[in-house]
């Protein structure tokens, strides 16, 4: 059986079968137990591939703790789960204490991605400091037009964000949720203000309480 095949004879859309996993991993054990021979992946290639990356998602089986998933089946809008932080950081300790398995992020990609950055914000939990601003907006030069490079991958962005959270001494907020609006609209407004400020004055490390 072929490892890849075209979807509806479309050269830019593939189904790929992933047969090999770490045999000692819990996921590999699940596949053996359930008699599932492979993980089916769906890849969609942009017109300018290989200068831009393909979009890839898991079709089946349904896997818990997936890295990313589409929001309302929209290829340009993702939810991503950040599982890995410095285990010795106060934020990682907060997550363990509160039983929170990951940080949920919302990414919105522009039509000209990867030549322009995605908009990214924290959905939950609410985080104080760590360069996280109102509405979950993220104060990180990499996410601005001036700081972005088309070679960046989503994984690289998340790794940089994880490092920024620790560097900025991020903590899970213990304040009541009703104290301040926490929405995409608020995040977008905060981020636009951030970009405008840095375009005027240059990029400097902000004060911790500003993000």
Can you give me a brief rundown of this structure?
By secondary structure, the chain is of the alpha+beta class.
CATH superfamily of the largest domain: Ubiquitin Conjugating Enzyme
Proportion of residues in helical segments: 10-25%
CATH topology of the largest domain, by name, is: Ubiquitin Conjugating Enzyme
C-alpha end-to-end distance: 51 Å
Number of strands: 10
Shape: globular
Number of helical stretches of at least 4 residues = 4
Mind telling me the C-alpha Rg? 19 Å
The major sheet is characterized as: 4 strands, antiparallel
- What is the string of SSEs from the N terminus onward? EEHEEEEHEEEHEH
Mind telling me the CATH class of the largest domain? Alpha Beta
Structural class: alpha+beta
Q: Roughly what is the average pLDDT, rounded to an integer?
A: 85
Strand order of the biggest β-sheet: 1-2-3-4
Question: What CATH architecture label of the largest domain applies?
Answer: Roll
Count of folded domains: 2
Contiguous uncertain segments of 5+ residues = 205-211
Q: Which descriptors would you attach to this protein?
A:
211 residues, alpha+beta, Ubiquitin Conjugating Enzyme, 2 domains, four-stranded antiparallel beta sheet, 4 helices, 10 strands, globular, disordered C terminus, UBC, ATP-binding
Itemize the secondary structure elements and their pairings.
Layout: E1 4-7, E2 10-18, H1 26-34, E3 39-44, E4 55-60, E5 68-71, E6 74-82, H2 90-98, E7 103-108, E8 119-124, E9 127-128, H3 154-167, E10 171-172, H4 184-201
Antiparallel strand pairs: 1-2, 2-3, 3-4, 5-6, 6-7, 7-8, 9-10
Protein name: E2 ubiquitin-conjugating enzyme
Function: Probable E2 ubiquitin-protein ligase that catalyzes the covalent attachment of ubiquitin to target proteins. May facilitate the monoubiquitination and degradation of MTOR and CCNE1 through interaction with FBXW7.
InterPro entries: Ub_conjugating_enzyme, UBC, UBQ-conjugating_enzyme/RWD
């Amino acid at each position: 059986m072929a490892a890849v095949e075209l979807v509806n004879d479309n050269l830019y859309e593939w189904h790929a079968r992933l047969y090999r996993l770490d045999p000692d991993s819990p996921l590999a054990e699940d596949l053996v137990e359930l008699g599932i021979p492979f993980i089916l992946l769906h890849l969609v290639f942009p017109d300018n591939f290989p200068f831009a990356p393909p979009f890839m998602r898991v079709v089946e089986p349904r896997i818990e703790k997936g890295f990313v998933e589409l929001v309302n089946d929209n290829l340009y809008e993702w939810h991503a789960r950040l599982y890995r932080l410095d285990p010795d950081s106060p934020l990682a300790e907060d997550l363990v204490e509160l039983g929170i398995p990951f940080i949920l992020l919302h990414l919105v990609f522009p039509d000209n991605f990867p030549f322009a950055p995605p908009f990214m914000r924290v959905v939950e939990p609410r985080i104080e400091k760590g360069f996280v601003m109102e509405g979950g907006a993220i104060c990180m030069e990499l996410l601005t037009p001036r700081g972005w490079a088309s070679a960046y991958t989503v994984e690289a962005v998340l790794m940089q964000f994880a490092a920024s959270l620790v560097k900025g001494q991020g903590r899970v907020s213990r304040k009541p949720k009703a104290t301040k609006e926490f929405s995409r609209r608020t995040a977008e407004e905060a981020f636009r203000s951030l970009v405008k400020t840095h375009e005027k004055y240059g990029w400097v490390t902000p004060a911790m309480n500003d993000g």
